[in-house]
Structure formats: C-alpha cells, structure tokens
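SUBJECT: A protein chain and its fold
Encoding: whole-number codes for local backbone shapes
Chain under study, with its fold:
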Amino acid sequence: MKKILILLLFLPVLGWAQAPNRFDEEVNEIKKKNDTLWDVSRPAIVFTGSSSVRLWEDLQDRFPDQQVLNTGFGGSQFSDLELYLDELILSYDPVKVFIYEGDNDVNAKVKLRTIVDTSERILDVLQQKKQGMEIVLISPKPSISRWKLRGKYKRLNRKLARLASKTEGVEFVDVWYPMLEKRKLKQDIFIEDGLHMNSKGYDIWYDVIKNYVE
C-alpha cells in the first residue's frame, strides 16, 4: 500500500516531464512573431528545428533576396517538431523548408532507428500536405560539449543522408565536416557553453547552405 501511495505522488511529476505539448507556449510566441513578419504575397522559406536554428538571429540578413522565416524552438527533437508541423511550417505555405533536428535526440539517447522513423513520418506529412515543397535536412552538427557522442552523430547523419537520397524532393546538407579541420573540431566557432555557435560557426553554415537557398 505504501509503495502505491508513493507512486501516485510521483505520477503528476512524471506526466509533466513527458508532456507531449511542452513547447505549446513557445510555439505560440514564435507563431505570433512570424505572423507579423510574413508577407503572404512573397514566396517564403522556413528554417526550423532546435536552438542552432533559433539562435541564428541574422538569418534573414544573410539572405536579403529571399523571405526567410525562422521558426526554430530551442531544446526540440524530431518528435517535438512532428507535433507542430502546421504551426511552424505549413501555415506559411513555404516553397522550401530547412529542418535542423537530431542534435538533442542523440544527446537524449533516443534510438537512431526511432529518430529516422520520426523524420520519415515528418517528410511524409509535409509532402502530402504541401506538394512541390522542397525539404532540406541539415545534418546534426559537431560540438565541444557533445564531442564524446560523435560516433552516434555520424551514424545518424549517414542514415539521414540515405533517407534524403531515396526521397524525391528532399536533400541533405552536411554541416558536420565543414566544422572540422583535419578531423578535429574547430574550437573558436562556439560560445562559452561549447554547444551553440558564434558568428564564425554561422559563417560556416551560411557557406554550406547558401546554394540550397538560392
């Protein structure tokens, strides 16, 4: 009886920790902001995913000839993005979407097969709801704080690259190797936390991604 009471006490906490809609408030704020920026008369390109996209603050400035909307939400995984495809992507009727997920998935020890299965479902939904929209998967990046997991990241990148290669209308862009120098991670492209990038890091991303935007 005592064990049952203890379990009941912890159930609300466990339920909150695994709440599927933990990003509702943040996504609502992102939606409000982008709704004020979106010019419905112009083609839109959406960048979405976890904090490496969310913190790319000069994204629109780097592509001045395009209408670029940043709907990134920090801490997200593929499974989180799957819940908000309408709000963060489809509601802006984009001609192209760039997706950066997988970084937090690997760190959270999500199985690679699960990650790929979720990403495949996302691609299916997007292509069904918006035919002709181009989709670009950005590879999970290397970082100082997660360098010990580099083997899993590289395996995931290979799997995502294969998924893109067999899916019409989907491309894979590799930012992993450009962030290395002679197989070693460049140290001066990150902020103090060793996870997120500074402007030098985003310069690398820009050089890699620009051809896929234009």
About this structure: The chain is about 50% helix and 15% strand.
